[in-house]
Design brief:
- This protein is 39% helix and 21% strand.
- With 458 residues, the chain is α/β, with parallel strands linked by helices.
- The chain folds into 4 domains: 13-150, 3-Layer(aba) Sandwich (Alpha-D-Glucose-1,6-Bisphosphate, Chain A, domain 3); 155-257, Alpha-D-Glucose-1,6-Bisphosphate, Chain A, domain 3 (3-Layer(aba) Sandwich), CATH 3.40.120.10; 260-337, Alpha-D-Glucose-1,6-Bisphosphate, Chain A, domain 3, CATH 3.40.120; 370-457, Alpha-D-phosphohexomutase, C-terminal domain (TATA-Binding Protein, 2-Layer Sandwich), CATH 3.30.310.
- Helix 5 packs across helix 7 and helix 6 packs across helix 12 (341-355).
- Bound molecules: magnesium ion (MG).
- Magnesium ion (MG) is lined by residues 99-100, 242, 244, 246-247.
- Residues 99-100, 242, 244, 246-247 line the site of magnesium ion.
């Protein structure tokens, strides 16, 4: 939990099971959500975590108590549940998931009737109901009812297929290795791929909430088995999902793992070739690569704060059709304006089939950047003041201050300095055309920031 009067973090409510998040709390959270939705019809689903059924029952009890009717979707991926909300024209969804967090965590994502997670303003309404004890319980004869909602995964798979050239992909008989992290990614992606004519090899595809195969965050250090397997079996593509299958990280035919910026830039390039002039929504933490592609293919970048909900909400507000994050989130608006691992996988295969190129070649054609990271200690109480001073000191440079301070330099290098939301530190992300330059930027700006923070404290 995030301190007084705060339930929601960047992506919903999260906590360690039976320590930060207990069934008693989840019933109350369910009732606060139910009060917010005012007798709505809500879909409830959960990921593969050991605590999933327990918390789903708790949240359902809380929702029913406030008169909300629940459609029980069972175990499912986040994007499939988000799609079901729109598809069945329901008022929203409550998803019991801790996404990429380790197995001891669980959490709750709340989705609005458009399939997108609630805005911060809506989250605050729920927090106020929760902390001010403003839950409105229903009378005994007004309690919500529950019924099963079958077919969520079937409908989702069919919907994805409508957005790619199924015949074109099928003709290629691709071999794809899928690493589903022992979670809900196993329910849709392998089936989708088989229906796209692919030979599918799965790893970590047995549902097991202890995550015995790997941790649910698709970071390179967790994807060594996928990389080795893709190469060993001679696959055309490897893909790994996070715990609720909204993020996807890809591996090429040589077993090389590619970070989300690159695969997003590839999707962006082919999207803009077909849809010139469109807006591309991405957080300020994304690589300059994303901007380079927009510049080269007549797109317009709209920078946002870091966080997938902000990307989705911005896409909705400005009617943008594509968004992406460096952590492997691809938001394909014609399907749904949320990140979606299975949709992203279909898009990558579609590009491979249309171009007839291997993934390594397609990614190799993109501009190259070297990325270096650093951190500087900064007590929480000085974070805001440091940001102000930093902006002042660096005025005149090509800067964006939507989330921390990002500076772009003439030689295509860039640096982002951003206060951590959870730790007393500033994080620095530099990128440049050479490794030396990226390192030098981290060094230079770390010492600038250190001096500045020091001067604030003295
Ligand atoms: Mg996730």
């Amino acid at each position: 939990m995030l301190g007084p009067r705060r339930l929601f973090g960047t992506n919903g409510i999260r906590g360690v099971v039976n320590k930060e998040l207990t069934p008693q709390m989840v019933i109350k959270i369910g009732s606060a959500i139910g009060t917010f939705f005012q007798h709505g019809n809500l879909i409830v689903g959960y990921d593969a975590r050991t605590s999933g059924p327990m918390f789903a029952r708790a949240v359902i009890a809380g929702l029913n108590a406030t008169g909300c009717n629940v459609l029980l979707a069972g175990m499912s991926s986040t994007p499939a549940l988000q799609f079901a909300v729109k598809n069945h024209k329901k008022d929203g969804a409550v998803i019991v998931t801790a996404s990429h967090n380790p197995p001891q965590y669980n959490g709750i994502k709340v989705v609005w009737n458009d399939g997108i997670e609630l805005s911060r303003e809506q989250e605050i309404e729920i927090e106020n109901i929760f902390f001010d004890e403003k839950i409105r319980y229903a009378e005994w004869n007004g309690l919500g009812t529950n019924r099963d909602l079958p077919g969520v995964i079937d409908d989702y798979i069919e919907a994805i297929k409508e957005h790619v050239d199924v015949a074109g992909i099928t003709k290629k008989h691709y071999h794809v290795v899928v690493d589903t992290a022992n979670s809900v990614g196993s329910l849709a992606a392998p089936r989708l791929l088989r229906e796209l004519g692919c030979k599918v090899t799965t790893i970590n595809a047995n549902i097991d909430g202890t995550f015995p195969g790997r941790l649910p965050e698709p970071r390179p250090e967790n994807l060594k088995d996928l990389a080795l397997t893709a190469k060993a079996v001679g696959a055309d593509l490897g893909v790994a999902f996070d715990g609720d299958a909204d993020r996807s990280i890809f591996v090429d035919e040589n077993g090389e793992i590619h970070w989300g910026d690159k695969t997003f830039a590839l999707v962006e390039k082919h999207f803009l070739k077909d849809n010139p002039g469109e807006k591309i929504v991405t957080p300020v933490s994304s690589s300059t690569l994303v901007k380079d592609i927009a510049d080269s293919y007549n797109g317009e970048i709209v920078w946002t704060k870091v966080g997938s909900i902000t990307v989705s909400q911005t896409m909705k507000k400005i009617n943008a059709k594509l968004g992406g994050e460096e952590n492997g989130g691809i938001f394909y608006g014609p399907h749904q304006s949320v990140r979606d691992g299975a949709m992203a996988t279909a898009l990558i295969l579609d590009i491979m089939a249309r171009t007839g190129e291997k993934l390594s070649n397609l990614l190799g054609e993109l501009p190259k950047y070297f990325i270096e990271k650093g951190k500087v200690e900064c007590p929480n109480e000085f974070k805001e003041k440091a940001l102000e001073k930093l902006t002042e000191q660096l005025s005149g440079l090509n800067m964006n201050t939507i989330d921390g301070v990002k500076i772009w330099f003439e030689d295509d290098s860039a640096i982002l300095m951003r206060p951590s939301g959870t730790e007393p530190i500033y994080r620095l992300y530099a990128e440049a055309k050479t490794e030396e330059k990226a390192l030098q930027l981290v060094k230079e700006y770390s010492s600038k920031l250190k001096r500045l923070i020091h001067s604030l404290q003295s």
